[in-house]
Amino acid sequence: MINLPQPAQKIIDTLKKAKFAAYAVGGSVRDLIMGKPTKGWDFTTDAKPEEILTLFPDSFYDNQFGTVGVKIKEPEDIYEVTTYRSERGYSDHRHPDKIIWGKTIEEDLSRRDFTINAIAFDGKTIVDPYDGQKDIEAKLIRAVGNPSDRFAEDALRMMRAVRIGAQLGYMIDPATADAIKTNAQSITSISAERIHDELMKLMSSPYPGDGVLLMRNTGILKIILPELDASFNTQQKSPLRHHIYDVGTHSVMALKFCPSADPVVRFATLLHDIGKPKTFHQDESGLITFYNHEMVSTKLTRNILERLRFSKKDSERILALVRWHQFSVDERQTDSALRRFIRRVGKENLADILALRIGDRLGGGAQETSWRLELYKKRLEEVQLQPFTVADLKIDGHDVMKQFNCKPGPIVGKILAQLFAEVEAGTLPNEREALLALLSHLSHKIKIGVATNGEE
Ligand code: ATP
Ligand code: MG
Question: Based on the domain organization, do 405 and 265 belong to the same domain?
Fold first, then answer.
Protein backbone atom coordinates (compact mmCIF):
# COMPACT_ATOMS: atom_id res chain seq x y z
CA MET A 1 0.00 0.00 0.00
CA ILE A 2 1.46 3.33 -1.03
CA ASN A 3 0.51 6.80 0.13
CA LEU A 4 1.08 10.20 -1.38
CA PRO A 5 2.98 12.67 0.75
CA GLN A 6 0.63 15.12 2.39
CA PRO A 7 1.21 18.19 0.17
CA ALA A 8 0.67 16.10 -2.98
CA GLN A 9 -2.53 14.61 -1.57
CA LYS A 10 -3.71 18.09 -0.67
CA ILE A 11 -3.31 19.36 -4.23
CA ILE A 12 -5.38 16.42 -5.50
CA ASP A 13 -8.04 16.88 -2.80
CA THR A 14 -8.36 20.58 -3.58
CA LEU A 15 -9.01 19.84 -7.25
CA LYS A 16 -11.42 17.01 -6.42
CA LYS A 17 -13.39 19.17 -4.02
CA ALA A 18 -13.99 21.54 -6.93
CA LYS A 19 -15.33 18.54 -8.90
CA PHE A 20 -12.30 18.02 -11.10
CA ALA A 21 -10.43 14.77 -11.67
CA ALA A 22 -6.81 14.85 -10.50
CA TYR A 23 -3.88 12.45 -10.31
CA ALA A 24 -0.21 12.45 -9.53
CA VAL A 25 1.66 11.11 -12.55
CA GLY A 26 5.10 10.61 -14.12
CA GLY A 27 8.45 10.19 -12.44
CA SER A 28 7.25 10.86 -8.92
CA VAL A 29 4.59 8.12 -9.02
CA ARG A 30 7.13 5.79 -10.59
CA ASP A 31 9.63 6.49 -7.80
CA LEU A 32 6.93 6.16 -5.14
CA ILE A 33 5.98 2.69 -6.43
CA MET A 34 9.66 1.73 -6.55
CA GLY A 35 10.01 2.84 -2.93
CA LYS A 36 12.58 5.45 -3.90
CA PRO A 37 12.70 9.04 -2.64
CA THR A 38 10.76 11.30 -5.00
CA LYS A 39 11.83 14.63 -6.43
CA GLY A 40 9.38 16.98 -8.12
CA TRP A 41 5.69 16.20 -8.42
CA ASP A 42 3.65 16.26 -11.60
CA PHE A 43 -0.15 16.24 -11.55
CA THR A 44 -2.66 15.90 -14.31
CA THR A 45 -6.26 17.10 -14.21
CA ASP A 46 -9.26 17.93 -16.37
CA ALA A 47 -9.30 21.45 -14.89
CA LYS A 48 -8.12 24.13 -17.35
CA PRO A 49 -5.13 26.32 -16.44
CA GLU A 50 -7.34 29.32 -15.41
CA GLU A 51 -9.38 27.04 -13.16
CA ILE A 52 -6.24 25.58 -11.57
CA LEU A 53 -4.93 29.11 -10.96
CA THR A 54 -8.06 30.19 -9.09
CA LEU A 55 -7.97 27.11 -6.84
CA PHE A 56 -4.37 27.73 -5.74
CA PRO A 57 -3.77 31.32 -4.71
CA ASP A 58 -0.01 30.79 -4.55
CA SER A 59 0.34 29.44 -8.07
CA PHE A 60 1.74 30.74 -11.33
CA TYR A 61 1.34 29.91 -14.98
CA ASP A 62 4.80 29.03 -16.11
CA ASN A 63 4.78 28.28 -19.83
CA GLN A 64 2.76 27.94 -22.98
CA PHE A 65 2.09 24.26 -22.35
CA GLY A 66 -0.60 24.76 -19.80
CA THR A 67 1.48 23.88 -16.77
CA VAL A 68 0.67 25.61 -13.50
CA GLY A 69 3.29 25.67 -10.78
CA VAL A 70 1.95 25.49 -7.23
CA LYS A 71 4.11 26.95 -4.50
CA ILE A 72 4.33 25.00 -1.28
CA LYS A 73 6.86 26.02 1.30
CA GLU A 74 7.00 22.98 3.58
CA PRO A 75 8.51 20.76 2.32
CA GLU A 76 9.80 22.80 -0.55
CA ASP A 77 9.61 20.88 -3.83
CA ILE A 78 8.34 21.42 -7.34
CA TYR A 79 4.62 20.82 -7.80
CA GLU A 80 3.37 21.15 -11.38
CA VAL A 81 -0.22 20.74 -12.44
CA THR A 82 -0.95 20.15 -16.12
CA THR A 83 -4.28 19.87 -17.87
CA TYR A 84 -4.97 16.55 -19.63
CA ARG A 85 -3.48 16.62 -23.07
CA SER A 86 -3.89 14.47 -26.12
CA GLU A 87 -1.51 15.88 -28.72
CA ARG A 88 0.60 13.37 -30.59
CA GLY A 89 1.97 14.97 -33.74
CA TYR A 90 5.24 16.81 -32.99
CA SER A 91 6.41 18.21 -36.30
CA ASP A 92 9.68 19.55 -34.88
CA HIS A 93 10.08 16.46 -32.69
CA ARG A 94 9.74 18.44 -29.53
CA HIS A 95 7.00 21.02 -29.43
CA PRO A 96 3.45 19.93 -30.06
CA ASP A 97 2.00 21.72 -33.05
CA LYS A 98 -0.77 22.96 -30.81
CA ILE A 99 -2.08 21.89 -27.47
CA ILE A 100 -5.20 19.80 -27.60
CA TRP A 101 -6.75 19.19 -24.21
CA GLY A 102 -7.56 15.57 -23.45
CA LYS A 103 -10.87 14.42 -22.02
CA THR A 104 -9.83 11.46 -19.88
CA ILE A 105 -6.92 10.31 -17.78
CA GLU A 106 -6.46 7.39 -20.19
CA GLU A 107 -6.08 9.78 -23.08
CA ASP A 108 -3.48 11.78 -21.15
CA LEU A 109 -1.52 8.65 -20.23
CA SER A 110 -1.52 7.47 -23.85
CA ARG A 111 0.63 10.42 -24.98
CA ARG A 112 3.31 9.80 -22.34
CA ASP A 113 6.67 8.27 -23.23
CA PHE A 114 7.23 5.05 -21.28
CA THR A 115 4.96 2.63 -19.45
CA ILE A 116 6.70 3.26 -16.13
CA ASN A 117 6.00 7.01 -16.61
CA ALA A 118 2.36 6.47 -17.58
CA ILE A 119 0.97 5.48 -14.19
CA ALA A 120 -1.48 7.80 -12.44
CA PHE A 121 -2.33 7.72 -8.74
CA ASP A 122 -4.77 9.85 -6.79
CA GLY A 123 -3.92 8.50 -3.36
CA LYS A 124 -6.46 5.67 -3.59
CA THR A 125 -6.63 4.34 -7.13
CA ILE A 126 -3.78 3.46 -9.47
CA VAL A 127 -4.55 3.94 -13.16
CA ASP A 128 -2.08 1.84 -15.12
CA PRO A 129 -3.43 0.95 -18.58
CA TYR A 130 0.02 0.06 -20.01
CA ASP A 131 1.12 -2.24 -17.18
CA GLY A 132 3.82 0.12 -16.00
CA GLN A 133 3.91 -1.60 -12.62
CA LYS A 134 4.80 -4.88 -14.34
CA ASP A 135 7.65 -3.15 -16.14
CA ILE A 136 8.87 -1.65 -12.88
CA GLU A 137 8.93 -5.20 -11.54
CA ALA A 138 10.81 -6.40 -14.63
CA LYS A 139 13.04 -3.30 -14.67
CA LEU A 140 12.16 -2.44 -18.25
CA ILE A 141 11.86 0.77 -20.25
CA ARG A 142 9.08 0.18 -22.76
CA ALA A 143 7.44 2.76 -25.01
CA VAL A 144 3.73 3.42 -24.57
CA GLY A 145 2.06 2.12 -27.74
CA ASN A 146 4.01 1.62 -30.95
CA PRO A 147 7.64 2.52 -30.13
CA SER A 148 8.62 3.58 -33.63
CA ASP A 149 5.63 5.92 -33.93
CA ARG A 150 6.40 7.39 -30.51
CA PHE A 151 10.04 8.12 -31.38
CA ALA A 152 9.01 9.53 -34.74
CA GLU A 153 6.70 11.96 -32.86
CA ASP A 154 9.47 13.09 -30.52
CA ALA A 155 13.07 12.03 -31.02
CA LEU A 156 14.12 13.28 -27.60
CA ARG A 157 12.33 10.25 -26.15
CA MET A 158 15.18 8.08 -27.45
CA MET A 159 17.66 9.92 -25.26
CA ARG A 160 15.20 9.88 -22.38
CA ALA A 161 14.98 6.09 -22.72
CA VAL A 162 18.76 5.76 -22.44
CA ARG A 163 19.02 8.27 -19.61
CA ILE A 164 16.13 6.94 -17.52
CA GLY A 165 17.48 3.40 -18.04
CA ALA A 166 20.88 4.53 -16.72
CA GLN A 167 19.28 6.37 -13.80
CA LEU A 168 17.22 3.38 -12.72
CA GLY A 169 19.51 0.55 -13.85
CA TYR A 170 16.79 -0.72 -16.21
CA MET A 171 17.08 -2.52 -19.54
CA ILE A 172 15.34 -1.24 -22.64
CA ASP A 173 12.69 -3.61 -23.95
CA PRO A 174 13.95 -5.17 -27.23
CA ALA A 175 11.15 -3.75 -29.41
CA THR A 176 11.75 -0.28 -27.96
CA ALA A 177 15.53 -0.62 -28.48
CA ASP A 178 14.97 -1.72 -32.08
CA ALA A 179 12.80 1.31 -32.67
CA ILE A 180 15.61 3.54 -31.38
CA LYS A 181 17.93 1.94 -33.95
CA THR A 182 15.41 2.61 -36.70
CA ASN A 183 14.82 6.23 -35.67
CA ALA A 184 18.29 7.21 -34.43
CA GLN A 185 18.89 9.53 -37.37
CA SER A 186 16.02 11.79 -36.29
CA ILE A 187 18.02 12.87 -33.22
CA THR A 188 19.37 15.54 -35.59
CA SER A 189 16.05 17.36 -35.14
CA ILE A 190 16.63 17.84 -31.39
CA SER A 191 18.17 21.09 -30.19
CA ALA A 192 21.73 21.09 -28.91
CA GLU A 193 20.53 22.39 -25.53
CA ARG A 194 18.24 19.43 -24.98
CA ILE A 195 20.90 16.93 -26.03
CA HIS A 196 23.29 18.66 -23.65
CA ASP A 197 20.81 18.39 -20.78
CA GLU A 198 20.10 14.71 -21.41
CA LEU A 199 23.81 13.93 -21.76
CA MET A 200 24.59 15.62 -18.45
CA LYS A 201 21.73 13.78 -16.73
CA LEU A 202 23.17 10.56 -18.17
CA MET A 203 26.63 11.50 -16.88
CA SER A 204 25.16 12.11 -13.41
CA SER A 205 23.41 8.74 -13.35
CA PRO A 206 24.71 5.59 -11.64
CA TYR A 207 25.36 3.82 -14.99
CA PRO A 208 26.71 6.41 -17.43
CA GLY A 209 28.99 3.91 -19.21
CA ASP A 210 26.12 1.56 -19.99
CA GLY A 211 24.15 4.49 -21.35
CA VAL A 212 27.02 5.45 -23.69
CA LEU A 213 27.32 1.85 -24.92
CA LEU A 214 23.60 1.72 -25.50
CA MET A 215 23.81 4.93 -27.52
CA ARG A 216 26.63 3.39 -29.51
CA ASN A 217 24.70 0.18 -30.17
CA THR A 218 21.56 2.01 -31.23
CA GLY A 219 23.35 4.49 -33.50
CA ILE A 220 22.62 7.63 -31.43
CA LEU A 221 26.25 8.14 -30.49
CA LYS A 222 27.32 8.31 -34.11
CA ILE A 223 25.07 11.32 -34.51
CA ILE A 224 25.60 13.24 -31.30
CA LEU A 225 29.27 12.38 -30.62
CA PRO A 226 30.73 11.05 -33.90
CA GLU A 227 34.27 11.70 -32.63
CA LEU A 228 33.74 9.27 -29.76
CA ASP A 229 31.92 6.77 -31.94
CA ALA A 230 34.93 6.65 -34.29
CA SER A 231 37.27 5.77 -31.44
CA PHE A 232 35.66 2.34 -31.08
CA ASN A 233 37.34 1.47 -34.39
CA THR A 234 40.82 2.37 -33.15
CA GLN A 235 42.81 -0.50 -31.67
CA GLN A 236 45.56 0.10 -29.15
CA LYS A 237 46.67 -3.39 -28.18
CA SER A 238 50.37 -3.33 -28.96
CA PRO A 239 53.74 -4.68 -27.83
CA LEU A 240 55.22 -2.70 -24.90
CA ARG A 241 51.83 -1.12 -24.16
CA HIS A 242 49.47 -1.92 -21.34
CA HIS A 243 46.25 -1.35 -23.28
CA ILE A 244 43.73 -4.16 -23.53
CA TYR A 245 40.79 -2.34 -25.15
CA ASP A 246 40.11 -0.30 -28.26
CA VAL A 247 40.02 3.45 -27.60
CA GLY A 248 36.21 3.72 -27.38
CA THR A 249 35.82 0.79 -25.00
CA HIS A 250 38.67 2.14 -22.90
CA SER A 251 36.96 5.54 -22.76
CA VAL A 252 33.73 3.98 -21.53
CA MET A 253 35.62 1.88 -18.98
CA ALA A 254 37.44 5.00 -17.77
CA LEU A 255 34.06 6.71 -17.37
CA LYS A 256 32.70 3.75 -15.42
CA PHE A 257 35.64 3.77 -13.05
CA CYS A 258 36.00 7.55 -12.69
CA PRO A 259 35.54 8.11 -8.95
CA SER A 260 34.06 11.61 -9.32
CA ALA A 261 30.28 12.09 -9.16
CA ASP A 262 30.57 15.37 -11.07
CA PRO A 263 29.05 15.05 -14.57
CA VAL A 264 31.58 17.55 -15.93
CA VAL A 265 34.55 15.48 -14.73
CA ARG A 266 32.92 12.30 -15.97
CA PHE A 267 32.34 13.81 -19.41
CA ALA A 268 35.99 14.95 -19.60
CA THR A 269 37.02 11.40 -18.67
CA LEU A 270 34.86 10.02 -21.47
CA LEU A 271 36.41 12.38 -24.02
CA HIS A 272 40.05 12.40 -22.92
CA ASP A 273 41.30 10.09 -25.68
CA ILE A 274 39.10 11.12 -28.63
CA GLY A 275 42.21 12.50 -30.37
CA LYS A 276 43.63 8.98 -30.66
CA PRO A 277 42.03 7.88 -33.95
CA LYS A 278 43.61 10.87 -35.70
CA THR A 279 47.07 10.36 -34.16
CA PHE A 280 47.23 6.58 -34.52
CA HIS A 281 50.61 5.33 -35.76
CA GLN A 282 51.89 1.78 -35.99
CA ASP A 283 55.50 0.99 -36.89
CA GLU A 284 56.87 -2.20 -38.53
CA SER A 285 57.34 -3.89 -35.16
CA GLY A 286 53.64 -3.44 -34.47
CA LEU A 287 54.16 -0.75 -31.86
CA ILE A 288 51.21 1.64 -31.71
CA THR A 289 51.67 5.27 -30.64
CA PHE A 290 49.34 8.27 -30.39
CA TYR A 291 51.86 11.06 -30.35
CA ASN A 292 50.40 14.35 -29.09
CA HIS A 293 46.91 12.90 -28.98
CA GLU A 294 45.98 15.10 -26.00
CA MET A 295 46.31 18.17 -28.24
CA VAL A 296 43.97 16.68 -30.82
CA SER A 297 41.61 15.50 -28.07
CA THR A 298 41.47 19.08 -26.80
CA LYS A 299 40.66 20.42 -30.25
CA LEU A 300 37.91 17.87 -30.87
CA THR A 301 36.54 18.38 -27.37
CA ARG A 302 36.36 22.12 -27.98
CA ASN A 303 34.26 21.46 -31.09
CA ILE A 304 31.93 19.19 -29.14
CA LEU A 305 31.50 21.69 -26.29
CA GLU A 306 30.68 24.47 -28.72
CA ARG A 307 28.33 22.30 -30.72
CA LEU A 308 26.44 21.18 -27.61
CA ARG A 309 26.40 24.68 -26.10
CA PHE A 310 28.25 23.92 -22.90
CA SER A 311 28.62 26.89 -20.56
CA LYS A 312 31.91 28.76 -20.54
CA LYS A 313 32.66 27.56 -17.03
CA ASP A 314 32.07 23.86 -17.76
CA SER A 315 33.96 24.13 -21.05
CA GLU A 316 37.03 25.61 -19.40
CA ARG A 317 37.13 22.83 -16.82
CA ILE A 318 36.62 20.05 -19.34
CA LEU A 319 39.27 21.47 -21.67
CA ALA A 320 41.83 21.81 -18.86
CA LEU A 321 41.25 18.19 -17.83
CA VAL A 322 41.51 16.82 -21.38
CA ARG A 323 44.49 19.01 -22.30
CA TRP A 324 46.64 17.95 -19.33
CA HIS A 325 45.40 14.40 -18.74
CA GLN A 326 48.72 12.92 -19.91
CA PHE A 327 50.61 14.49 -16.98
CA SER A 328 53.69 12.57 -15.90
CA VAL A 329 54.08 11.37 -12.32
CA ASP A 330 57.81 10.69 -12.73
CA GLU A 331 59.45 11.04 -9.33
CA ARG A 332 62.46 12.81 -10.87
CA GLN A 333 60.44 15.92 -11.66
CA THR A 334 61.48 19.10 -9.89
CA ASP A 335 59.20 21.06 -7.58
CA SER A 336 59.00 23.77 -10.20
CA ALA A 337 57.75 21.21 -12.74
CA LEU A 338 55.00 20.28 -10.29
CA ARG A 339 54.18 23.94 -9.79
CA ARG A 340 53.97 24.45 -13.51
CA PHE A 341 51.53 21.55 -13.75
CA ILE A 342 49.38 23.03 -10.97
CA ARG A 343 49.38 26.39 -12.69
CA ARG A 344 48.38 24.89 -16.03
CA VAL A 345 45.57 22.68 -14.77
CA GLY A 346 44.39 25.13 -12.13
CA LYS A 347 44.46 24.41 -8.40
CA GLU A 348 40.69 24.02 -8.39
CA ASN A 349 40.90 21.20 -10.98
CA LEU A 350 43.61 19.10 -9.33
CA ALA A 351 41.31 16.66 -7.53
CA ASP A 352 39.35 16.28 -10.77
CA ILE A 353 42.34 15.51 -12.95
CA LEU A 354 43.43 12.91 -10.39
CA ALA A 355 39.93 11.39 -10.60
CA LEU A 356 40.29 11.30 -14.39
CA ARG A 357 43.66 9.58 -13.99
CA ILE A 358 42.20 6.93 -11.68
CA GLY A 359 39.40 6.26 -14.19
CA ASP A 360 41.99 6.15 -16.97
CA ARG A 361 44.15 3.66 -15.07
CA LEU A 362 41.34 1.36 -13.97
CA GLY A 363 39.72 1.63 -17.39
CA GLY A 364 42.96 0.43 -18.96
CA GLY A 365 43.29 -2.59 -16.73
CA ALA A 366 45.88 -1.06 -14.39
CA GLN A 367 45.70 -0.88 -10.60
CA GLU A 368 43.87 2.08 -9.11
CA THR A 369 47.13 3.69 -8.10
CA SER A 370 50.89 3.16 -7.93
CA TRP A 371 53.59 4.26 -5.53
CA ARG A 372 54.57 6.88 -8.13
CA LEU A 373 51.09 8.34 -8.30
CA GLU A 374 50.79 8.35 -4.51
CA LEU A 375 54.16 10.09 -4.20
CA TYR A 376 53.12 12.59 -6.84
CA LYS A 377 49.88 13.37 -4.99
CA LYS A 378 51.85 13.89 -1.80
CA ARG A 379 54.27 16.19 -3.55
CA LEU A 380 51.44 18.17 -5.12
CA GLU A 381 50.15 18.88 -1.61
CA GLU A 382 53.59 19.74 -0.33
CA VAL A 383 54.54 22.19 -3.04
CA GLN A 384 51.24 23.94 -2.49
CA LEU A 385 52.03 24.28 1.22
CA GLN A 386 55.37 25.96 0.57
CA PRO A 387 54.69 29.44 -0.62
CA PHE A 388 57.06 30.16 -3.47
CA THR A 389 58.20 33.75 -3.50
CA VAL A 390 61.20 35.87 -4.47
CA ALA A 391 62.66 35.02 -1.05
CA ASP A 392 62.92 31.39 -2.16
CA LEU A 393 65.24 32.24 -5.05
CA LYS A 394 68.69 30.77 -4.67
CA ILE A 395 70.17 34.29 -5.00
CA ASP A 396 69.26 37.51 -3.24
CA GLY A 397 69.69 41.28 -3.39
CA HIS A 398 73.29 41.10 -2.24
CA ASP A 399 74.17 39.00 -5.27
CA VAL A 400 72.49 41.51 -7.55
CA MET A 401 74.25 44.51 -5.97
CA LYS A 402 77.58 42.75 -6.10
CA GLN A 403 77.21 41.74 -9.70
CA PHE A 404 76.00 45.15 -10.82
CA ASN A 405 78.26 46.97 -8.43
CA CYS A 406 75.40 49.17 -7.29
CA LYS A 407 73.70 50.42 -4.13
CA PRO A 408 70.31 49.27 -2.81
CA GLY A 409 67.44 50.66 -4.88
CA PRO A 410 64.23 49.66 -6.66
CA ILE A 411 66.13 48.20 -9.62
CA VAL A 412 67.48 45.42 -7.37
CA GLY A 413 63.97 44.27 -6.59
CA LYS A 414 63.00 44.57 -10.24
CA ILE A 415 65.81 42.33 -11.38
CA LEU A 416 64.97 39.75 -8.71
CA ALA A 417 61.31 39.85 -9.71
CA GLN A 418 62.24 39.28 -13.34
CA LEU A 419 64.36 36.24 -12.48
CA PHE A 420 61.64 34.94 -10.17
CA ALA A 421 59.05 35.18 -12.94
CA GLU A 422 61.26 33.07 -15.18
CA VAL A 423 61.87 30.47 -12.49
CA GLU A 424 58.15 30.32 -11.73
CA ALA A 425 57.33 29.87 -15.38
CA GLY A 426 59.86 27.06 -15.55
CA THR A 427 62.09 28.69 -18.16
CA LEU A 428 64.99 29.06 -15.71
CA PRO A 429 66.07 26.60 -13.00
CA ASN A 430 66.21 27.85 -9.42
CA GLU A 431 69.92 27.06 -9.15
CA ARG A 432 72.54 29.46 -7.88
CA GLU A 433 75.03 28.85 -10.69
CA ALA A 434 72.50 29.45 -13.43
CA LEU A 435 71.06 32.53 -11.74
CA LEU A 436 74.49 34.07 -11.18
CA ALA A 437 75.45 33.39 -14.78
CA LEU A 438 72.35 35.18 -15.96
CA LEU A 439 73.05 38.11 -13.62
CA SER A 440 76.53 38.43 -15.03
CA HIS A 441 75.15 38.36 -18.55
CA LEU A 442 72.60 41.06 -17.67
CA SER A 443 75.16 43.27 -15.92
CA HIS A 444 77.02 43.56 -19.20
CA LYS A 445 73.92 44.64 -21.02
CA ILE A 446 72.24 46.98 -18.56
CA LYS A 447 73.74 50.27 -17.48
CA ILE A 448 72.63 50.27 -13.90
CA GLY A 449 74.17 53.63 -13.08
CA VAL A 450 71.51 55.27 -15.23
CA ALA A 451 68.75 53.24 -13.63
CA THR A 452 69.79 54.04 -10.06
CA ASN A 453 69.47 57.71 -10.96
CA GLY A 454 65.80 57.22 -11.20
CA GLU A 455 65.36 56.38 -14.86
CA GLU A 456 64.24 52.87 -15.61
P1 ATP B 1 12.72 13.29 -13.96
O2 ATP B 1 11.87 14.43 -13.46
O3 ATP B 1 13.38 12.50 -12.91
O4 ATP B 1 13.65 13.68 -15.06
P5 ATP B 1 10.25 12.38 -15.10
O6 ATP B 1 9.83 11.06 -15.65
O7 ATP B 1 9.41 13.00 -14.03
O8 ATP B 1 11.75 12.21 -14.65
P9 ATP B 1 9.79 14.83 -16.54
O10 ATP B 1 10.63 15.42 -17.63
O11 ATP B 1 9.63 15.54 -15.25
O12 ATP B 1 10.37 13.36 -16.32
O13 ATP B 1 8.37 14.55 -17.19
C14 ATP B 1 7.23 14.19 -16.42
C15 ATP B 1 6.39 13.18 -17.16
O16 ATP B 1 5.96 13.74 -18.40
C17 ATP B 1 7.13 11.92 -17.57
O18 ATP B 1 7.15 10.98 -16.54
C19 ATP B 1 6.33 11.46 -18.76
O20 ATP B 1 5.13 10.86 -18.33
C21 ATP B 1 5.96 12.75 -19.43
N22 ATP B 1 6.95 13.17 -20.45
C23 ATP B 1 8.05 13.94 -20.29
N24 ATP B 1 8.70 14.13 -21.43
C25 ATP B 1 8.01 13.46 -22.37
C26 ATP B 1 8.15 13.27 -23.77
N27 ATP B 1 9.19 13.80 -24.42
N28 ATP B 1 7.22 12.53 -24.41
C29 ATP B 1 6.19 11.99 -23.75
N30 ATP B 1 6.00 12.13 -22.44
C31 ATP B 1 6.88 12.85 -21.74
MG1 MG C 1 9.71 14.97 -13.08
Answer: no
